[in-house]
Amino acid sequence: MTVRQYTAADGLPAGYWNADPADPRASHAWLTANRWPEDGVRFLEVPGAGAACAVRLQDDHSGFSRMNCTDVSAGSGRAVDQPEADVKEARAEGLRQLNVCALGYGPSVFPAGGAEFDADALVTALEEYAGAQGRLLSFLHLDEDSPVLPRLRERGWSVGVTDRYFRIPDVGADEDAYLAGFSAHRRRRLRRELTSLAEAGATAEIHQGDATEEIQREVARLEACSDEKHGLPGDPARLLRVNERLREAFGPGYCVILVRDRHGTAVASSTVVLGAREVLPRMVGLGPGSAEIGAYFHVAYHLPMRLARGHGARGVLLSTGTPTAKLHRGAVARPLLSAVPPGAPAHHALLRRTDTALAV
Asked: What pLDDT, on a 0 to 100 scale, did the predictor assign at position 114?
């Protein structure tokens, strides 16, 4: 079966994209703009299956661990205990990989509009394509309702929970409606949290589709500060390029949230992209002075919720990772599942342990 490879989503026919998807991560804008140099992401089209997919090719174990089937199967970064010898065996088994996945944990399989989607044909074509290149094929971070999961299970693939994605499903018509869903104790704490900026003399700004070049530079500076706090190189120029691509791709659907201290200095930011049903804060930036006024909770949660209400969206997509702060602000967790083929016993063993640890 024919498989066509493209270096960018622009190469795929327009019929794969919904003009206004509920989830912004399923949009053409997201898949073209949210890219990094040497990210290894490609797009494969299988016309005979009526589908295309995002994949990451790798020839070693460098790069993004959450797009590496060995690291994902092992639960790396998710507090899963694995015997080191088993991880080493899996790294040898999956040195060269073709992983069906997308940046940002979004959808990675895209049925073509107006065509009949054949999940079985898609899996067959990808197995043959990966096998011809000597690559281990995997599917990473699938939602429970992914149409390929039943076919993978029928073929004897190992499927298990490898992560949890958090979202606030209902922001309410206003803050009072949102707070009504919490206990009295939690409501009091959230109300205090919501007043922290005013008490500090700080202000909040939401720029929808009108972020100036100066605002973009402020955001890049704050995002670089956050990267440095997480042990990553702070590179404002690189971050500015990514945000400029997002602004160009999303147009009025690209938003910037800023918090300024009482002196007018930007101390916290969030870049947000809009979907028809949900909004996605892509990255939070935190600079000096943000912690003292509780700015993080505003740019990560409360202001994106305000933006969602104004846009007519119902929910806020958050991320994977540490759950406590998300759950305390009304988030719910949805399991993400990954799958490895029958011919990868070392990965099967890792995946079974990770599934046992996370599927609770």
From this structure: 80
What does the alpha-carbon distance between residue 20 and residue 23 come to, in Å, rounded to a whole number?
Answer: 9
Q: What is the mean pLDDT of each run of 10 residues along the chain (360 residues)?
A: 92 85 90 85 95 94 90 94 97 96 91 90 97 97 95 97 97 96 95 96 95 96 95 92 94 97 97 95 96 97 96 95 94 97 97 92
Query: Where do we find the tokens 């929970």?
Result: 161
Query: What's CA 33's distance to the chain center, in Å?
Result: 13
C-alpha separations of 132 from 97, 168, 266 in Å = 12, 42, 52
At residue 229, what is the residue type?
Answer: K
pLDDT for res 297? 97
30, 272 contact by CB (below 8 A): no
Give Cα 192 distance to the centre of its chain: 30
Query: Can you name the residues that pair with 254 across neighbouring β-strands?
Result: 273
The tokens describing 16, both together, are: 């794969």
* Cα 163-165-171 angle, rounded to 5 deg: 165
Q: Cα–Cα–Cα angle for 164, 167, 170, nearest 5°?
A: 150
Q: State which H helix or E strand residue 132 sits in.
A: helix 119-132
Rounded to 10°, the helix 84-93/345-358 angle is 130
Residue 37: predicted pLDDT: 75
pLDDT at 39 (0 to 100): 85
CA–CA dist 29, 317 (Å, integer): 17
In the chain, what are the helix, strand and coil shares in percent, each to the nearest 5? Answer: 40, 25, 35
The whole-angstrom separation of Cα 188 and Cα 184 is: 6
